[in-house]
């Protein structure tokens, strides 16, 4: 297994020193080009044909610092993600998170992985509501971390990367297409967050779970999500997964769901599944959602107790 880190801190330093007219293409070629296969899979143009058209730069700049923002004024922010020890810790988090599956008898079809960490856009509300960190790992072989670097987010990146590695493994076995439904996303996010806490401890449980209390989960979230598990179409199920505030930011119709409803529900659903079936998180990660949901009927009626 080959794991490569794309040292974004070094790219940011180069872009910060570049002239305004050179920043865009330097960033595109150094930061975006190594992920070319991902953009092709996601069908995001690498470079827009028309001026100001949609492409990887526009897409990336929604959540992250855009090339024109990367100036010497960001030097202190860049410095926070520049230590060799930080990058070594992140690379080790990716390595052990993937290696654990192999050690538990799961042969991963993908053998090469590229990961990076990017500076988040502080104006992005979807990022700040997540307490300043996030990630993406849904395309096998490619793993991203996003953060507004500070004393809170930096120690949490290893757990965030473990979460994304779990997604990365799952989607080497589970087909993602237009038939993907809300049930799959709830299961997937539940698996990923349980995996992150298994790897690095419950103290690093993400805000997408910790911000939900037992009453909200049992009375408001579970009864609604139970009735919408078969819902397809990202614009339709995203509000149930992310909650109304993020749904509105994405111009989706709100559905009276609190922040990260699907994530919190998924976390406790997977705990219920693992406890009641005796399956390991490794087995569960590559199990179809329909199979998991068939075995958790009792979860929906049982009051979930949240400790801590």
What is this entry, summarized?
The chain has helices spanning 8-17, 20-32, 36-42, 56-63, 75-79, 84-103, 125-128, 157-173, 182-200, 207-210, 214-226, 234-242, 244-249, 261-277, 281-285, 289-294, 297-301; strands at residues 2-6, 112-119, 133-136, 142-147. The chain has 308 residues and is an alpha/beta fold.
List the keywords.
single chain; 308 residues; alpha/beta; 2 domains; four-stranded mixed sheet; 17 helices; 4 strands; globular
SSE blueprint and pairings:
Blueprint: E1 2-6, H1 8-17, H2 20-32, H3 36-42, H4 56-63, H5 75-79, H6 84-103, E2 112-119, H7 125-128, E3 133-136, E4 142-147, H8 157-173, H9 182-200, H10 207-210, H11 214-226, H12 234-242, H13 244-249, H14 261-277, H15 281-285, H16 289-294, H17 297-301
Parallel strand pairs: 1-2, 2-4
Antiparallel strand pairs: 3-4
Helix pairs in contact: 1-2, 6-8, 8-9, 9-14, 11-14
Task: Walk me through the structure.
The chain is of the alpha/beta class and 308 residues long. It folds into 2 domains: 173 residues, no CATH class; 131 residues, no CATH class. Helix content is 55%, strand content 7%. The chain contains 17 helices and 4 strands. The chain has a 4-stranded mixed β-sheet with strand order 1-2-4-3, with helices on one face. Strand 3 and strand 4 form a beta hairpin. The longest helix is centred in the N-terminal third of the chain and has 20 residues. It is globular, with a radius of gyration of 19 Å. The two termini are 38 Å apart.
